[in-house]
Amino acid sequence: MSAILGPAAVALGLLGSVAGAITVAFGLARGRPQLLRMARSYAWLLLAAGLVAAVAMEIALLTDDFSIKFVHDNSATGTPLPFKIATMWSALEGSIILWALILTAYIAAVGHRFRDRITDPLVAWAMLTLFVVAGFFFFLLAGPANPFHVVQVPPGYDGPGPNPLLQNHILMAVHPPMLYLGYVGFTVPFAFAIGALVTGRLGEGWLLETRRWTLLAWGFLSLGIILGGWWSYEVLGWGGYWAWDPVENASLLPWLTGTAYLHSVMVQERRGLLRVWNLSLLCATFSLTILGTFLTRSGVVASVHAFSDSSIGPLLLGFFGVIVVVSVGLITWRGEQLRAPGRIDAPVSREGAFLANNVVFAAFAVVVLLGTTFPLIVEATGGGRLSVGEPYFDRMTMPLGMALLFLMAVAPVLPWRRASTELLRHRLFWPAVVGVVSAGVAVLVGARGVVPVVAFALAGFAGGSAGRHLALAIRRQGWRGLVGRSNGGMVVHIGVVLVALGFAASSAYARQADLTLAPGESATFAGYELTFLGGSTRTEGDRSIVEAQVSVNGSDPFAPSLRTFSASMQPIGTPSVATGPVADVYLVLTEVPGADGVATIRVIIQPLVVWIWVGGIVIALGTVLSAFGGARTRAGRRAAPETDRPAEVPA
To answer: I want to staple 347 with a disulfide (CB 3.0 to 4.6 A). Which of 46, 105, 352, 395 is the partner?
Structure first.
């Protein structure tokens, strides 16, 4: 059944995308509203096609239909149910199905949301852009990335199953969909940006229409990145969560430009400034999602996160090029109309801080983009293999990260247009106190080195600024004051501060040792007593597990293990983590117990790493709070007095 339903759904999606784009284009050219109204019907048709294609693939996976090549190459009868479902996005072709499904859901949501304005030329051009993007991904599914090829299956065949690393933790079922919801979600604001550029409606109205769409995509991408770090920490056994891997960078790049946009868009809404910046950031964000898709699905980089070599790489790179050329061409064409009606009155002002914020985020993105793509460019031009590793990224991004923390502290307290010295002294006093106390506490508990201490101080400074903002909001409005773009944005800032603290502490002060212990033997490391209770071996489905039982400070035993999957026969380490608010004790079994029962266990002490995951949850909460309520008209904002009210800073 899947061999029939799947290709039919893909063909329907491709035809619907092309027909929808042609219909809307013809309606715009001839001024025929009845054709523009058909865009909504095409949107629902695409959603149906995406749903049927995804359901057909899941049916094939769940029923072990090995006559479907994707199932034949990537699934196995013994794969546990959650990972069998997640197999669809564990390999190239199935991941494109998930992309198409999410994209069609966004298109249907846009069609429904703007159903009463579907004949508006700006909305129509946005729908036309969405249909073109959908058509490209359905084309991939219909041709070079067809997941429904039928193959001959020998009797008794059982597939290899997903990559063992991708069926070793339940986060694999959650992390990729979150990333895709973020990646694909940026298509919506990009489509409206194209609509605004084509129609010449470059005022602030279209920004208000797309703010929540952008915020939603940004929130999903943020959560996806945090969950990806958590997966790496819990699965890969190296004790870390971020290694500047090219595929990790591919998700960071649109996050950086998207974050810059969410801040600077307020300047355009309030004062009509930074129009070129905002349109450029939106177009860059969507372009970078396509570039990231190229990096992960073309085989040009070697990574545990990347898919194998495929033929769709040139197509993705070509699509990326088209997007860049069209975006730059339209912005250049509308250059005169994009000139701001005003100017930034003083650098020490809210709009001045947001402009500085844009510059730093842009510099951060350029540094990451250069370090990620330069080795690929050198290799492609015959210059041999070149590696750009952590030292480059750490050295280049560290001062930029410090600058962003400083701006997070200062920007929320600045008024529009101009700030007086007295006002800054009043608003920054308590945040500065929090920053100094944070640095002092860090030194007292053992922090050493200028960079970590400064990082703690700036994180405290930024956290104090956000806390002051929220305290004022709660005092005026009660707990309802947490809802809205401004106050929800400050909750996001607190989440980012927690992530920064966890990152600084775990990066600077992690310690590790390899302990060789006999059953019943104990050892002390970094103030923790570890007792090896013994080893065991068992079989679960298609994997055999060698496990060590280790007690930390007399706790119930933790169980680091080595798992061997029948399809690969290569042992995969599975760490076990004793999580605490101050530090994690990270245990990895490096040598299995021999005949004498002796095992070697690697112990890594990771300070404050749990606060990275807590920060991710706080960021998600703040994103939700930012998306609802708190909106005021631009005119109302201009009329509002510049008092010591909480500053309006988005997520």
So the answer is: 352
Q: Whole-angstrom Cα distance, residue 572 to residue 406?
A: 42
Q: What integer is the mean pLDDT of 392-417? A: 90
Phi first, then psi: give them for residue 42, nearest 5 degrees: -65, -35
pLDDT tops 70 at residue 639: no
pLDDT at 390 > cutoff 60: yes
Torsion of CA 194, 195, 199, 203, to 10 degrees: -90
- In our burial notation (b when 16+ CB lie closer than 10 A, e otherwise), range 122-158 reads bbbbbbbbbbbbbbbbbbbbbebbbbbeeeeeeeeee
Q: Which residues pair with 558 in a beta bridge?
A: 550
With vertex at residue 291, the alpha carbon angle to CA 306 and CA 12, rounded to the nearest 5 degrees, is: 85
Quick one: average pLDDT of 125-139? 97
Which pLDDT tens digit goes with each residue over 90-124?
A: 888 999 999 999 999 999 999 999 999 999 999 99
Asked if residue 103 lies in contact with residue 133, where contact means CB atoms within 8 angstroms, the answer is yes
State residue 318 phi and psi, 5-degree precision.
-65, -40
* 304 DSSP assignment: T
User: What's the pLDDT tens digit per position in 35-84?
Assistant: 999 999 999 999 999 999 999 999 999 999 999 999 999 898 888 899 99
Give φ, ψ of 506 to 5 degrees: -70, -30
| 275 DSSP assignment | H
Tokens of 150: 């039928």
Identify the three-state secondary structure at position 454. Answer: helix
Question: Counting beta carbons within 10 angstroms of the beta carbon of residue 324, is it exposed (0 to 12), middle (13 to 18) or buried (19 or more)?
Answer: middle
